[in-house]
Write a structure and sequence with these properties.
419 residues; Cytochrome p450; three-stranded antiparallel β-sheet; 16 helices; 14 strands
């Protein structure tokens, strides 16, 4: 059967402005389709098709390989990224070595050690603006907080959060070939240098941080090469920023637009557990991921050839009526909620527990201290390119001025999600 060609480019301005309708059209009219953009690739947008591909890592590989020009091709993005993300862009057996290093550090229990830091830093960031009644929920909170906590996890100076955060915010929001993309790549080169130097330092003076753990994983069956160590730490840093910043920004936007949901969360903070999953489903932070077919296979009525690139529309799958009742409606307490925002199978996001923790700290604190915030919609700006990340560059708000609390939250409201 011929390839069903559709006009689709996840990096286009039209898609950025109409992403919900774009994925709905794909799912309803061409759930398995071929796009000629970026060298050509298949697009899967139904929940079951996407979930099948995500789980079957042997057929739909995340790893990189040498292209015809010798450069690394494949991986989880279309076009391929100019850097390698591991363990995200690895498959077994390499994936297993990486995850054995990360799992003990990012498990649901171990990340709780960052809860107090996340709450206190959130409080301090709000303290910087609370008396004025004005701040930018992206630039002053959703960007810095995840960067600070992720730098703390790695063992890098949180005081440098701006320099670390900017390239990761610029890169996914900038179209390939743009001036901002070049700026982002330059900033990422600096980040690589910082990680590389810190790795050398930790071999001499190890500490209780992830860089020390990775830097000294150089013996036995789980030994990492120098390049693998740097790429792994870089991946952790980028992933720590992307998901939490996107998720919290979209939650703040939603609660600005939907006061009923805001009031329910203020009245009953324990609802934040289910609400977090619905924010993840409805505003899927990582909109798409790519794979490479390792063999000839069939999805639905179509043959996918070995070597074909495949784009998994996670956002489209998360609104599939075959998987979710009334999927275009945001239900604060939706349960169950088997969304694909953090993936599925072996490639399920290892940092999901820390991402939820940071999200909780930001949303619960904002609702407690700035319950009447209003977004200036004339100045709020979403990423101009949301092919990968559903992000915001700026979200100015006004609210009733309050008092500085030195980063502390009342105990009753501090941790509605604590296990």
């Amino acid at each position: 059967m011929d390839r069903p060609v559709t006009h689709f480019d996840q990096h286009s301005q039209d898609h950025a402005q109409n992403w919900e309708a774009s994925y709905r059209r794909l799912r309803e009219e061409s759930p398995i389709a071929w796009s000629n953009a970026h060298g050509g690739y298949w697009i899967l947008s139904r929940y079951e098709d996407v979930a099948t591909a995500v789980r079957d890592y042997a057929t739909f590989a995340s790893g990189r390989f040498a292209g015809n020009d010798g450069a690394l091709a494949g991986g989880i993005a279309i076009p391929s990224l100019p850097f390698r993300l591991i363990p995200t862009e690895t498959d077994p057996p390499d994936w297993e070595r990486m995850r054995r290093l990360l799992n003990p550090v990012l498990g649901p229990t171990t990340v709780q050690r960052f809860r107090r830091s996340a709450q206190e830093n959130t409080g301090r960031l709000i303290d910087n603006h609370v008396e004025t009644g004005r701040m930018d929920l992206v630039k002053d909170l959703a960007n810095p907080l995840p960067t600070m906590i992720t730098l703390e996890l790695l063992g890098l100076p949180a005081s440098e959060w701006r320099r670390f955060a900017e390239p990761f915010n610029l890169f996914p929001s900038s179209p390939p070939g743009s001036q901002n993309r070049a700026r982002a790549e330059h900033g990422m080169a600096w980040i690589y240098e910082q990680i590389q130097q810190a790795t050398v330092d930790r071999r001499i003076d190890p500490r209780d941080d992830l860089i020390s753990r990775a830097a000294n994983a150089n013996s036995g069956e789980d030994a990492l090469t120098e390049d693998e160590i740097i790429d792994l730490l870089f991946n952790v840093l980028g992933a720590g920023l992307d998901t939490s910043t996107s998720l919290s920004s979209n939650a703040f936007w939603h609660l600005h637009r939907h006061h009923g949901d805001r009031d329910r969360l203020i009245d009953d903070p324990t609802l934040l557990r289910e609400a977090t999953e619905e924010f993840l489903r409805f505003y899927t932070p990582i909109q798409t991921q790519a794979r490479t077919a390792t063999r000839n296979c069939r999805i639905g009525d179509y043959e996918i050839a070995a070597g074909d690139r495949v784009l998994l529309a996670l956002s489209g799958a998360n609104r599939d009526p075959a998987a979710f009742e009334d999927p275009e409606k945001f239900l604060l307490d939706r349960f169950p909620n088997r969304h694909l925002a953090f993936g599925m199978g072996i490639h399920r996001c290892v940092g999901s527990h820390l991402a939820r923790l940071m999200f909780e700290a930001m949303v619960s604190t904002v609702l407690h201290r700035m319950p009447d915030y209003v977004v200036d919609e004339t100045r709020a700006q979403r990423y101009p390119d949301i092919g990968t990340i559903l992000g915001w560059t700026t979200m100015p708000v006004t609210f009733s001025p309050g008092s500085v609390l030195d980063g502390e939250l009342p105990a009753a409201k501090a941790s509605p999600l604590t296990p």
